[in-house]
Design goal:
Length: 351
């Protein structure tokens, strides 16, 4: 059972302690010396790529994704003489090295959960997966249109429907749960941004409701909310939140039924409860990070300006969107049916 209080240790501190632990296992015969050195070396590399001074518990699945992909592109000195993976670069890591590094990082975070260094294992939200040939690739995470509509429909029905009579009045979380899924799927925030949100972060400007999101690196972005989300948000602020409020967290937007700020680890449970209301043919398990992929994929598939999508998601660089863009069934056929050069002028003759 993991400790209830998470220790706010830096990546470097955790890596040092982990290295001591794996090397100590060699004295008991629990781990071969060569294996211990591989684990220790890989986590040292992880610290260098992730940022040694960062707090380990602040790392998200996106951060680990970036580390894994940076490692994959990292020149391998043992492979000199082979053609570079990219123009101007050295030979990248082999598929076997990438898979081994991911296993090392995964073992490190499993231990970090037990040791109380992280509240939530970020490996659960990682989207890059090893494949037999070609190293690491992003696994499909976005829901299809039908699956997303099923989840959003269930969230809106939950928020609009009557409270569950079997529950105590102060334990009714239907409005909150519907709001969580709508915000995740419509806006695509990081789960840490969602749980850190305060009620005062939502404001009206020019008749439009905005969410001021405080993101990574101290960056702030104001994202306009679609009307269906605003309707549930207003209902939650007017009624749902009041039922949960105990005065312990006067600013927090999302509260547990005990009146505490909702923890990141609770969000997956909320999604799963809403998914139970989706008809089986349109139901597919998804993580908060998968809903972030869903937002990006469908905004881009609808020809939304890439820079606008970048600003909604809070990315510093447009290139990062490539990891969030999943292919959708039939999207190429749909795109060609409404070709911007041929569709509007069908039947016109060239002059």
């Amino acid at each position: 059972m993991r400790p209830s209080d998470v220790q706010r240790l830096t990546v470097a501190e955790c890596v040092d302690r982990y290295g001591e632990m794996v090397r100590a296992k060699t004295s008991t015969g629990a781990l071969a010396p060569a294996s211990a050195e591989v684990y220790a070396r890989d986590v040292v590399t992880f610290a260098a790529l992730a940022g040694a001074d960062r707090v380990l518990d602040d790392l998200t699945g996106e951060d680990v994704d970036e580390v894994l992909l940076r490692f994959a592109r990292k020149p391998d000195e043992r492979r000199r003489g082979r053609p570079p993976a990219e123009p101007g670069g050295g030979p990248s890591q082999s598929a076997a090295s990438q898979a081994r590094f991911r296993r090392s990082v995964s073992a490190f975070f499993r231990y970090a959960v037990v040791a109380g260094w992280v509240q939530l294992n970020p490996m659960d939200a990682v989207t890059v997966r090893p494949k037999q040939r070609g190293g690491l690739r992003a696994e499909r995470r976005a829901l299809t249109v039908e699956q997303a509509e099923g989840l959003l429909g269930a969230a809106r029905d939950l928020a609009d429907g009557p409270a569950v009579a079997a529950r105590r009045r102060d334990q009714r979380t239907e409005l909150r749960d519907g709001l969580i899924v709508l915000l995740l799927a419509a806006v695509g925030p990081r789960v840490s941004e969602l749980t850190a949100a305060n009620a005062e972060d939502f404001f009206v400007n020019g008749g439009t409701r905005y969410w001021r999101i405080f993101g990574k690196g101290g960056r702030t972005r104001d994202v306009p909310l679609p009307r269906p989300v605003v309707e549930v948000l207003d209902a939650y602020l007017a009624d749902g939140r009041r039922l949960l409020d105990r005065g312990r967290e006067p600013k927090a937007l999302l509260l547990s039924w005990r009146g505490r700020r909702l923890a990141r680890g609770d969000v997956q449970g909320v999604i799963d409860r809403v998914l139970e209301r989706v008809e089986p043919v349109r139901r597919r398990s998804v993580t908060p990070h998968g809903l972030r992929h869903t937002t990006a994929t469908h905004l881009l598939a609808a020809a939304t300006d890439m820079d606008a999508v970048r600003r909604v998601l809070g990315h510093a660089d447009l290139s990062t969107l490539g990891r969030y863009r999943d292919e959708l069934p039939g999207e190429l056929e749909a795109a060609m049916r409404v070709h911007p050069l041929l569709g509007p002028v069908e039947g016109r003759r060239g002059g």
